[in-house]
Amino acid sequence: MYIMNTIMVPVGKGRANLSALIAKAKAGTSVILTNHGQPEVIISAYQPTGKPWRMPTPGKPERFGDLQSPVMEDWK
After folding, report:
1. Is 37 left (phi over 0), alpha (psi -120 to 50) or beta?
2. What is the SS3 assignment for the chain?
3. How confident is the model at residue 62 (pLDDT cuts 50, 70, 90)?
4. Cβ contact 71:40 at 8 Å
5. Which residue segments constitute the domains of the chain, with CATH numbers given?
6. What pLDDT sits at residue 49?
7. Strand-strand pairing, 30-35 and 38-43
8. Which residues contact 23 (CB under 8 A, 6 or more apart)?
9. How confident is the model at residue 1 (pLDDT cuts 50, 70, 90)?
10. d(Cα 18, Cα 26) in Å, to the nearest integer?
11. What is the pLDDT of residue 57?
12. Residue 47: which pLDDT band, with cuts at 50, 70 and 90?
């Protein structure tokens, strides 16, 4: 099981140490920026995902209308 480290940092300190927080996020730590002690924003490393799943053909166009044809063109 993979356990991710999490740290909480006030927004003011985060602003002053953004480069260091980005380096920590790239190393696997989840950084939560707080405002008056309340979580506001999460900084975490970007994780690329695969191509989105799509249906090859619309399921029931008579029921849902032609909702899929605008999104059925190829991804670039």
Report:
1. left
2. CCCCCEEEEEHHHHHHCHHHHHHHHHCCCEEEEEECCEEEEEECCCCCCCCCCCCCCCCCHHHHCCCCHHHCCCCC
3. low
4. no
5. 6-43 (3.40.1620)
6. 78
7. antiparallel
8. none
9. very low
10. 12
11. 61
12. confident
Whose tokens are 């999490």? That residue is: 6
Residue among 24, 25, 43, 23 nearest 33 (CA): 43
Amino acid at 33: L
What is the pTM assigned to this prediction?
0.58
Cβ neighbours for 49, distance < 8 A, ≥ 6 positions apart: none
